[in-house]
Write a structure and sequence with these properties.
Chain lengths: 430, 430
């Protein structure tokens, strides 16, 4: 058996400690699959005294994470510090420049600086691997980059944030409002104290940007992703969705369109019979649609120490075996220059919920606004009637251009009889 | 860009023609992902005159498939002839001995001769790739061999035969009997004229043997797979399954047990809420359960020219990039020697349907037979009563050892009042 692959881990939080534990517990399996042992030689973290449930005896401790790049005893750097900037980025850059492969779980860094890091990796001919950055242990990066590599991918769709999926699932199952379920999720540890990164869709957008770059063979373009979170999804909308045969999911969606690539993260209504509609709780799922393979869906746990460590160590095994791939699936000069398409060009059907004062002429005004912008209706629900009080009116449109829908919506929102900001949820047939 | 990778295709049926078409239609995408063009240089098939919808101009035509191994213009051999023996095996062996990578879609050959072929590939240090052998375009081989490689896999389960899944789905949806749905499937081209390879579970067993070898890191052991097909599944059983909250699926199942690995293919009752129960029609799915990653499920089209070609070309791209893995995930000497466990040692719950003459004492006799072999009942359904005629009695057992169940069943089948061979279907919580 060849010499061990020596790993330096930067960051000993849940994921870093999980990687160390996995490399120890499954050492024999990993050595067999990797063709040689993979061992931790050095670590870096903030608090040296903290008990992380792992044995650090004999490991070099670096106060400064970036020092791992220069440690001659380290062959590969595992970056699990997190954050797009700061020590994570500095370490990744230093390691690549030093000719050391980098394995990272850092979606923010890959989404925001992935193009520059890929250039650095290519220039120094060093692997930069990031399976753990998207959908935890589900090997979706490898599937898009290698397994489905022969296909022209036309569309990807994913449940990419377990916190949001947990909240939406719990809202549906118990009929509770967002704020109540969020508080419960925080109590259970499924949501952070500051949940905005998750519930505002930013985390899912980071992951979608990464998947879209791989799927469409183009440089990562996070700033072009349209992002909406789930704060405005109400129990009422979830109930109406059920009535209409849909479930509400926060999806990341990217599509090859005539004039470029659209990428967006927002709550969607998906038909309840579609496989992705059935992926509940903290589970993640990614659907990829290729011209030869058709639709392939992968699902599993999208977060947590175990799944994330599984992905990190899979990358380490690839490196130990000498299996490498360009960061975005092709060398920089072979990447596509397809432009990003703005959300205004999106064509789709919409669910629109208004709270209106129930008086004559309101529906006529709403219908006129839609008609004047070329939006045609598929169906309408107006059930509860209560003179003087606001009642929900739900409209489902046929396919229409988002820009037209936005103009119609602005006019509708300005009507006197419309009491709250209307809720608009895109309908997606995934 | 480097020199093209020159491919020789043996077999120009649906899959071979699909590979040629994919390499042409997506040439630019494939070259970008592979780092160099992948081009067909030579082919071999039986009938030179047949129109396959692909342009064979400029390609060398070999009457004898094995000649592809010796053709100096061929870098890689794609074997899509099929069959465990004959020209397929002769070509694979000749190519490996000649130091040429082999890409095959041949599950029978890999299941039956996979250990010997792996030894040959290892001796000559040549890749032998077979993503297309299992579950069409779903990258399940790559997932088990690389994506989940850090895990101790405890269990795999899969819907591995689209024909059987189509038949079982149609039986459930329309309440028809097996023979009628099979005839319809044959008419639609979803089942072969001689369907026994599919409906008797052999095709699924080939695929399960391959998956189990990869999942558990052991040499492929097809002859140790317990195989039952779906011919004995009746509309009555499917209706009872629905009533009990289950769906009937033909599953391939392999599990790490205390004394070795069990591998079996048979109809199963799976809880209708489990994700695999929802995979209908010609779709395939594979669930893998790892100690760190948890459960991961992959689903998609398991057959057809497009999906299979997608998998073959993914393997070619790996070879073009120089990405290689040992055939069974580890070098031969690092493979596990865990023995195979016979079906008699299986522990599980059972659905048992008897057709009994409705007269006093029958149920007491059946219950006594079960009790005497230590099998305890969870529930019983006996609905239709019709003096003198056979009526169905359905028994659901608690977990019990298969050997005990088999002994109890033999005694029950011998009872005078039991009119037909009892139907036994294992209950699996996948």
């Amino acid at each position: 058996m060849s010499a061990p692959l020596a790993v330096g881990i930067a960051g000993l939080g849940t994921v870093g400690a999980g990687v160390a534990r996995l490399l120890t517990e499954n050492a024999a399996i990993i050595a067999a699959r990797a063709g040689r042992p993979i061992v931790v030689r050095a670590v870096s973290a903030r608090d040296r005294g903290r008990d992380r449930g792992i044995d650090l005896t004999g490991l070099t401790w670096h106060e400064d994470a970036v020092a791992l790049a220069a440690d001659p005893a380290v062959d590969v750097v595992v970056e699990v510090i997190g954050g797009a900037e700061g020590p994570a980025r500095a370490l990744a850059e230093a390691a690549l420049i030093a000719g050391k492969p980098v394995v990272t779980a850092n979606k923010a860094m890959m989404a925001v600086h992935g193009a520059a890091l890929a250039a650095l990796a290519e220039r120094h001919a060093v692997p930069l691997a990031f399976e753990a950055a998207v959908a935890g242990g589900i090997p979706v990066i490898k599937a898009l980059r290698e397994g489905l590599a022969a296909n022209r991918i036309d569309r990807i769709a994913g449940i990419l944030n377990g916190t949001c999926n947990y909240i939406l699932t719990a809202m549906r199952e118990h009929g509770h409002e967002f704020a109540d379920v969020l508080a419960e999720a925080q109590r259970l540890g499924y949501a952070e104290a500051d949940p905005s990164f998750d519930v505002d869709g930013i985390d899912a957008a980071h992951k979608l940007a990464i998947l879209a770059a791989l799927a469409f063979g183009r440089p990562v373009a996070f700033s072009a992703v349209h992002v909406e979170g789930i704060r405005h999804v109400s129990a009422t909308d979830i109930a109406f969705a059920g009535e209409l045969g849909y479930r509400i999911k926060l999806l990341g969606l990217a599509r090859r369109m005539e004039h470029g690539i659209s990428a967006r993260v927002h709550p969607c209504m998906v038909p309840e019979a579609s496989p992705i509609a059935r992926v509940d709780g903290v589970y993640n799922a990614v659907v990829a649609e290729g011209d030869f393979v058709g639709r392939v869906m992968l699902q599993g746990r999208g977060a947590g120490a175990g799944p994330t460590a599984s992905a990190v160590v899979a990358d380490l095994i690839d490196i130990a075996r000498g299996r490498a791939a360009p960061v975005w699936g092709a060398d920089a000069r072979a990447l596509s220059d397809a432009p990003s398409v703005a959300i205004g060009a999106h064509i789709g059907a919409y669910y629109l919920r208004l709270m209106v004062v129930d008086r004559p002429g309101v529906i006529a005004d709403v219908a006129a606004a839609l008609r004047d912008h070329g939006v045609s209706l598929e169906s309408m629900i107006q059930r509860a009637r209560s003179a003087g009080e606001a009642v929900p009116v739900v409209l489902v449109t046929h396919e229409t251009e988002e820009a037209a829908m936005a103009r119609a919506l602005a006019r509708i929102a300005a009507l006197d009889a419309v009491m709250e900001t209307p809720t608009l949820i895109r309908i997606e047939h995934v």
